[in-house]
Amino acid sequence: MPGKTLFDKIWQAHLVTVESDEQPAILYIDRHLVHEVTSPQAFTVLRQRSLPVRRPERTFATLDHSIPTDRERMAYVDEQARAQVETLRSNCRDFGIQLFDLNSAEQGIIHVIAPELGLILPGQTVVCGDSHTSTHGAFGALAFGIGTSEVGYVLASQCLLQRKPKSLAINVTGSLQAGVTAKDLILDIIRKLGSGGGAGYVFEYRGPTIKALSMEERMTICNMSIEAGARAGLIAPDETTYAYLKGRPYAPASAEWTSALASWHQFASDPDAEFDAEIFIDAHSLEPMISYGTSPDQSIAMQGRIPEPGSHDHLAQALSYMQWQPGQSLEGVRVDVVFIGSCTNSRISDLRAAATILQGRRVAQGLRLMIVPGSEAVKRQAESEGLARIFIDAGAEWREPGCSLCIAMNGDQLKPGQLAVSTSNRNFAGRQGKGSRTLLASPLTAAATAIQGTLTDPRAYIY
Amino acid sequence: MEAFISLTSKFISLPLENIDTDQIIPARFLTQTHREGLGAGLFYDWRYEAGGTLRTDHILNQDHRDAHILVAGANFGCGSSREHAVWALQSYGFRVVMSPSIGDIFKSNALKNGLLALEIDPFFYQEICRHPEASLTVDLEQQSIALSSGATSSFVLEPFARLCLLQGVDQLGFLLGHETAIANFEGRQR
Asked: Which residues of A touch B73 (CB under 8 A)?
């Protein structure tokens, strides 16, 4: 009998009832993360059926999607957005759920604050009504996005009905060159798999390149698993994980830490584990990547050229929307807005990377640079390190934590036709506002572009 | 949840791959706190010009009263987990969505709301697209699809979701019925 994968082990440890032909498994959920946009209708179901939240102490909420990111937090996009925020407040109050509200020191993008607070631990199951829940796989937790119906099921029962997905090992070797980041690596992986290529799979990212990544880089990788259609993406916990977790407010402490640490060591794929599928990536020759189309799998190396669509309607339509010609290079195209933020790239290491390029320079004339820290904690840290000063002196907008221009439902948005370089995760048509055009890139590429005013290879700024 | 047994209906086809849930319902429609009425925002940026003028030439703006089936290209419903995409399609009048492949979260959301999300044979998909004037019969009991032009196909649906749809019951009651097993699990986890 072959060994077990990391995914097998977490799955098995959470089975309330096993799967049969007739019915899916009942899977127990350790952590439930909640935000204002995908939860109201779930709480309505609880109220209609007079159900309590089964385990409020396993449930944590914050405000991130609909909130304004201006300094005063007053510029709600409309009254409905303000009412949605109030709805989460009253739901959390009525059902006894911890809410990290706008006036708290812990508020931020749910996928940034949950790890910061030590809420995500190896071997857990984690869900949230948000597809980027896959972020938390970086800790060796099985974390996936769910819809609002399932948010209600978890609130009421702490469980979900699930068929076991298949497993895909993504083996990465070769060290990343200077100027090439985790974001470039995941864009390359998504390009190779295609936006639906991971459907039905849980990924495990492994190999020396992955082992060498920091926790924040690992979160960037796992975050975008969904952009290849995956159910979840995992990375086995190791010393890097434990060092990150130790001392976090909700992480186990003292004697509990010791026993937790001992139990976490089991969460690795056995050497003889068999995956349903496996791919191999060499990261050594990887260059900074840039998306060019309207799907996250449409990306090229910075020095590359836009492919010919041939008979591929989807690509032809993407090029028409983006106003590109086949065979064209993107380096040097004029950019209107640069956005550094989102659950993909708004953590302190992302801001430090951007600051290395922005320090002592000025944002190009006519370009708008928005920097939106992922959380209050990131914001405080960036201010104490002097990064915020670097950004402001460069002419950037230094804003309050939230999803901001990644989701563009909160007042932060592009004008029709505007072109943005964005450190976020989706370049869908209209994602950043009706008619908006998005180029996904790393914080380094974003910062270099902001200085230059045109899409720029960050290696020009790296000595 | 409304039960689904079978349906014969005209269909609308959107033969494009990777139609993400941001296209189905743009994020700016997600601030409402109820499920109803989202049909007005369905494919909004496809159906309206930048200034808000209705694009009368768009297929979704033509008379669709008889069309309760949406046929779309591969990887339909990829992207964001927003269940609003399902509610918007239902509010507009769709009861079935079929595509050669469907995003995992969208598929799960759809089936939990009584919107039958079917992954169909890619060749049958092409056959459907060749007959835009035909109607389709979807039989959930038999797990079959028939095109009025004569072609037929079968589909596979997760058995539990199929049973819930046939009976018109949602999964929450089933989960809550396992209280003892859940409590036992929690006891073991201590």
From this structure: 314
- B172 min Cα distance to partner chain A (Å): 6
Give contacts of B101 with chain A, Cβ < 8 Å.
Answer: 196, 199
B-chain residues within 8 Å CB-CB of A226?
79
Task: Name the residue among A152, A199, A317 with its Cβ closest to that of B172.
Answer: A152
ipTM associated with this complex: 0.97
Backbone angles phi, psi at B10, to 5 degrees: -70, 170
Ranges of beta strands (E only) in chain B are: 6-14, 67-72, 96-99, 116-119, 135-139, 144-147, 152-154
Q: How far apart are the first and last CA of chain A?
A: 52
Write down the pTM of the prediction: 0.97
**Chain B residues lying within 8 Å of A85, measured CB to CB:** none
Find, in chain B, the residue whose alpha carbon is nearest to that of A316: B16
Q: What percent of chain B has pLDDT over 70?
A: 99
Q: Does A46 touch chain B (CB under 8 A)?
A: no
Cβ(A325)–Cβ(A319) under 8 Å?
yes
Using the structure block, give the residue that is written with the tokens 């975050």: A223
What does DSSP assign to residue B30?
T
| CB-CB neighbours of A357 under 10 Å | 26
CATH of domain B6-188: 3.20.19.10
Taking the C-alpha atoms of residue A450 and residue A203, their distance in angstroms, rounded to an integer, is 34
- Taking residue B118's Cβ as centre, other Cβ atoms within 10 Å add up to 22
Reading the block at residue B166, the tokens are 């046939």
Contact B116, B94 (CB under 8 A): no
- The DSSP output letter for A406 is G
Cβ distance of B78 and A196 shorter than 8 Å: yes
C-beta neighbour count of A463 within 10 angstroms: 6
B27 to chain A, minimum CA–CA distance in Å? 6
Query: Between β-strands A201-206 and B67-72, what pairing exists: parallel, antiparallel or unpaired?
Result: unpaired
- Low-confidence residues in chain A, pLDDT < 50: none
Contacting A residues, span 353-382, partner chain B, CB-CB under 8 Å: none
C-alpha distances (whole Å) from B79 to each of A292, A346, B102, B176 are 17, 20, 11, 30
Surface of A (384-413) touching B: CB under 8 A: 407-409
Per-residue pLDDT tens digits for B76-121: 999 999 999 999 999 999 999 999 999 999 999 999 999 999 999 9
